[in-house]
Automatic annotation (TrEMBL):
Keywords: ATP-binding, Nucleotide-binding, Transport
TM region positions: none
Pfam families (alphabetical): ABC_tran, oligo_HPY
Protein name stated in the entry: ABC transporter ATP-binding protein
PROSITE patterns on file: ABC_TRANSPORTER_1, ABC_TRANSPORTER_2
Cross-referenced InterPro entries: AAA+_ATPase (IPR003593), ABC_transp_ATP-bind (IPR050319), ABC_transporter-like_ATP-bd (IPR003439), ABC_transporter-like_CS (IPR017871), Oligopep_ABC_C (IPR013563), P-loop_NTPase (IPR027417)
Source organism (scientific name): Spirulina subsalsa FACHB-351
């Protein structure tokens, strides 16, 4: 009998292209004990996700496992089996049963044409061979375990509170029918009817429904708010403890790893460059790559001028045999803190003024008539001053993005006024509004969806210059494109390349270059770094600060990540359910939050982000 659940020995995964062979996973070893959590961290392309797919036997072609052994022990009294020697049929029975996985994007992992009940019941029946009614009961119990559905006692209490009645007068039969109705209702909902946090709970419920021995979570909290993220992390910890389940938690965020993992493995270009206990890795990192990952994450207890990056700590050189060798830089990067100065002169005139702004969306009633509005923004008022960065934080659904789109006149307001440089832009004609577009730009969250895949990046940056007739001809405009690419750290010779030829961080730089093309004065960054690795995120944040100093830009920086917002912002505005909870200096918001909601947001931040 062994206490080991997983023993990976010299695993190697290669992808075979026409001209070269890529070692996605290059001879890694690790062991996972029963009930233990292993955190695997690294940037995109480091081999984290390919490792998880190799464990499940799901490496996509042209990839192939070329070397190694994966020994898996499903039960304490069972002998270990090498997963790589099993037939596909036997691996399929283990996959989803004894080995389960939570993927990064639940919206892409769930079938949009089936309700969540059907998908849960299907997974349970496939691996347990029980009747549909038994599978449905188990699906409900699992949804209650992940707290997407309240327990029977809570459902009973909620119903009695709503009707305000005595249970002896209502009758147990009616109460039981109402409880069952609530259970059927949640099972009938489709993926698009649930929030990101709710969808992730459905994925967790599906993964644990067959009581797996090993759960693999691949970036399960990357795009979630800090409060939802904290809830998901608490849930995973509780499930592992209650079920004695082993967990592999994959992420690029070391702050999150500090919350859940017992052991950490740091991956770089397919290799494990450092491993150890969480405290050891955080307090005494040995490898320069680990030091760089820890340093480039913004800290809440500091206000830095610029963030260090991984390249500040290490460089890659060629060895005698042509192989890549990592060398630590001997000169430690100088990390300078921002001096406390008044960010806004007392006599400064606001560049943007918002007065009693209300935005709502019609809710369709019977026969298609609109009887009421869902109010996304409720009477907000604030100012943004020239050269300032106003951070905007809050949970999903609080109205951040709706407010941003309304400021840019992409969404109409129900009432209120928006003044840009003293002009009321809510009354602008279409002709005036088009000229105003040159002054106001936006960088969206997802760089993959922000660029047209059918046109080159040079054309994408050139297009606004042509639309607004900026420059004295094609030659001058193309020179402007080349300058912008160079300014955001990209090669001007790449103008004829297409978006799919660039990484996520490079695409976001292209989006920033396009936003700068018309020399705007005001830019909204809507979750513009939330999908990026911490090292790439640090580079983009530094770039935004440099550009602000060079061009005198004014930003509204929207994010659910308080540490990033605090690094970027002079002042922070906290939104909750369409209203402004509080607005103050960034340091004051973090050190002395005035409202309970803000205190909850700060309390939800992973401890690793505070103490790294």
């Amino acid at each position: 009998m062994t206490d080991s659940v997983l023993d990976v020995r010299h695993l190697k995964v290669q992808f075979f292209a026409e001209e070269e062979t890529i070692n996605a996973v290059d001879g890694i070893d690790f062991e996972l004990k029963r009930g233990q959590t292993l955190g695997i961290v690294g940037e995109s392309g480091s081999g984290k996700s390919v490792t998880s797919l190799a464990l499940l036997g799901l490496v996509p072609p042209p990839g192939r496992i070329t070397e190694g052994e994966i020994w898996f022990t499903s039960e304490p009294n069972h002998d270990p089996v090498n997963l790589l020697t099993l037939s596909e049929e036997k691996r399929r029975l283990l996959r989803g049963g004894k080995i389960a996985m939570i993927f990064q994007d639940p919206m892409c992992s769930l079938n949009p044409v089936y309700n969540i009940g059907f998908q849960l019941v299907e997974a349970i029946q496939l691996h347990q061979g029980i009747s549909e009614s038994d599978a449905r009961r188990q699906a409900i119990l699992t949804l209650q375990e992940v707290r997407l559905l309240p327990s029977d006692e809570q459902l009973r209490a909620q119903y009695l509170q709503e009707v305000g009645g005595d249970p002896t007068l209502i009758g147990e039969r009616e109460i039981s029918e109402q409880i069952n109705y609530q259970k059927r209702t949640i099972l009938k909902r489709y993926p698009h009817e649930l929030s990101g946090g709710q969808l992730q709970r459905v994925m967790i419920a599906m993964a644990i429904s067959c009581n797996p021995t090993l759960l693999i979570a691949d970036e399960p909290t990357t795009a979630l708010d800090v409060t939802v993220q904290a809830t998901i992390l608490d849930l995973l910890r509780e499930l592992c403890r209650a079920r004695q389940m082993s967990l592999i938690f994959i992420t690029h965020d070391l702050g999150v790893i500090a919350e859940v993992a017992d052991q950490v493995a740091v991956m770089y270009k397919g290799k494990v460059v450092e491993r150890g206990r969480v405290g050891q890795i955080f307090l005494h990192p040995q490898h320069p790559y680990t030091k760089g990952l820890l340093a480039c994450r913004p800290r809440l207890d500091q206000k830095l001028t610029f963030l260090p990056t991984v390249s500040d700590f290490m460089e890659v050189v060629r060895g005698e045999n042509g192989e890549e060798v990592i060398q630590e830089k001997l000169v430690t990067p100088i990390i300078s803190e921002v001096e406390e100065v008044a960010t806004v002169p007392p006599t400064a005139k606001p560049l943007l003024e918002v007065r009693d702004l209300t935005v709502g969306f019609p809710v369709r009633g019977m026969f298609g008539f609109s009887k009421r509005y869902f109010m996304a923004v409720k009477g907000v008022s604030f100012e943004v001053y020239p050269g300032e960065t106003l951070g905007l934080v809050g949970e999903s659904g609080c109205g951040k993005s709706t407010l941003a789109r309304t400021l840019l006149r992409l969404t109409r307001e129900l009432q209120g006024r928006i003044y840009f440089d003293g002009e009321d832009i809510t009354k602008c004609s279409k002709r005036r509004l088009r000229r105003l577009r040159r002054e106001m730009q936006i960088v969206f969250q997802n760089p993959y969806n922000s660029l047209d895949p059918r046109i080159s990046i040079g054309k994408a940056i050139l297009e606004p210059l042509e639309v607004h007739q900026v420059g004295r001809g094609d030659k001058e405009r193309r020179q402007r494109v080349a300058y912008l690419l160079e300014r955001v750290g990209l090669n001007p010779d790449w103008v004829n390349r297409y978006p799919h030829e660039f990484s996520g961080g490079q695409r976001q730089r292209i989006c920033i270059a396009r936003a700068l093309a018309l020399n705007p004065r005001f830019i909204i960054c809507d979750e513009s770094v939330s999908a990026l690795d911490v090292s790439v995120q640090a580079q983009v944040l530094n770039l935004l600060k440099e550009l602000q100093g060079e061009f005198g830009l004014t930003y509204i920086f929207i994010s659910h990540d308080l540490s990033v917002v605090k690094f970027m912002s002079d002042r922070i505005m906290v939104m909750n359910q369409g209203r402004i909870e509080e607005l103050d200096r960034a340091d004051e918001i973090y050190e002395n939050p005035k409202t309970e909601y803000t205190r909850q947001l700060i309390a939800s931040i992973p401890l690793g982000e505070v103490c790294v």
